[in-house]
Amino acid sequence: MCLFMKNAPYMVVEREFVNPGKGSAFVRLKLKSLTTGQTLQETIKSNDSVEEADVADRNAQFMYADESDYHFMDTENYEQFAVPREGMEDKQFYLQEGHTYYVTEWGGKVIDVKIPYKIVLKVKEAHEALKGDTVSGATKTVVLETGLSVRVPIFIKQGERVMINTETKEYVERVNS
Amino acid sequence: MVSVWSVVFLFRVAGGCFAAGSFSFRAFLLYTFRMRFDGIRARSMLAAAVRAFFFARNYLEVETPLLAPALIPESAIEVFRTSFEHPWRGARDMYLAPSPELWMKRLLAEGFGNMFQICKAFRNAESLGERHNPEFTILEYYTVDAGYLDSLRLTEDFFGCVLDAAAALPADPGAGKGLGRLRPPFRRVSMAEVFRAHAGLDLAAFAPRCAEEAPGAAKALTREALGKGLPAKEGDSWEAAFNRIFVGAVEPALPQDRPLAILDYPRGVRCLARDIPDSPWNERWELYAGGMEIANCFTEETGAEKLAAYFREEAALKRGAIVPHAIDEGFMALYTGNRAAPGRARDWRGAEQPRPDGRGRSDSAAPESPVPAAGRNAPISSSGVAVGFDRLLMAILGEAAIGGVILFPFSDMLAPTLTRNRG
Question: Rounded to two decimals, what is the model's pTM?
């Protein structure tokens, strides 16, 4: 989500709802300027009015990534466009070829690619767990198809598919079939 | 008492996995699902520890309605509305209780003495975040003839018992790191002190002593905050101005190494806590553990006029709520219309409670109310504490999100409809 504050567009990087119990509820916002990249902390009352920045959303299919860009295709008009990796380096772990994402633009520039809350990824590399290895907390680190490393229970094998929470970067469950 | 359970547990896991000389996959699976398993065990452990602690001190466990036709007016809290469908008399609005407070105070007024309850509470229109689930668990306990400082000592004892019980949980490298941050004694600081330390602001100079002073004080506080570069917005009420600074600047800076009790809240934040005479504060504390608000306590206000003013002012604000609800006027009748049993009608300092009608009329003369008044006695002095049971579990297990301690988190139940899955 993007807000227009102090005469500039800001992207909401983090938001935390705070309700002191007896009294007004607030949202603590961490904002990132879309123009300068600077971050800003704001405390907004939950019924304060804020202006949403005039940004446009479109659906686009992720095609491939190269060294500098992510390449997408608009699913409505088949227009192809590139999104620089810069500023969205972490997205590479969640973009899957052929999948469709919500892409947000402001002033003709892509400023955000929305990643679903939970995604399913294939395990690319997993070492076999050692028998009786209960010391390491019964988890191991595996590498998923997008290159993301996560800790999973030791019964997860190479080639299996697992659900990942993209906010916490944590394993959720094994996905069968 | 350290970890008899954990030793037993480890033996059970080891024994289970290698029973009959071979590796048992089923037992091992159980162990790998330990996080969820731990959550279940810890919740059960905590409930048992609560009961053991309060039973040992002769507190009565009570159960009060979750579904009610009228509620306490709390303008900061939105509620859930549903309806009771009578088979032939039609429907009637009902609400899910946001806390058991008024029901427990009715029982107090009836003379049941010290009591506690573990129950569900429901709060609507809160963001589904790290610390909120619309349906959550409250532990609430009341001590008769006690003040907020007595409750603070009781809560320290309670935390000590909980930590002993938690030590018996199966050890996990990740979990348990929060335990140290729960250990009593609590650090005690006043609200004025945390404002001075973390906002550089002398709150006493800007805190109103009565409702009439609030508008002027709000302007002054906002001006002061803007001048100091603190979060502030022109037009805020005093409560909003105070909370904006507290939430934006003070709370994030609170020390997290030990439990922190912030005492003496400003009267400008309206609640049912008793005022401290000749000051702008009231007898209220909130407990923070690991930077998270975990408990709230008052010396309960018993003055009929103060209570009536609270109900009147909050009920007026409630009319503008997203979900307006009927107000529990029957509770007010306890304070204004009912006869007190001898020896009960006094405040916690031992002073006689004024009886507004002066004649001690009976229940039948009490104002019409959607909820029948439960007691014949006037309110008795007490101090009550509400603890976020789920948040306490989070702190014990070192969980960052409330979803980690709730077996079926609300956000997960909604997930299929909330998330856009475009696979």
Answer: 0.71
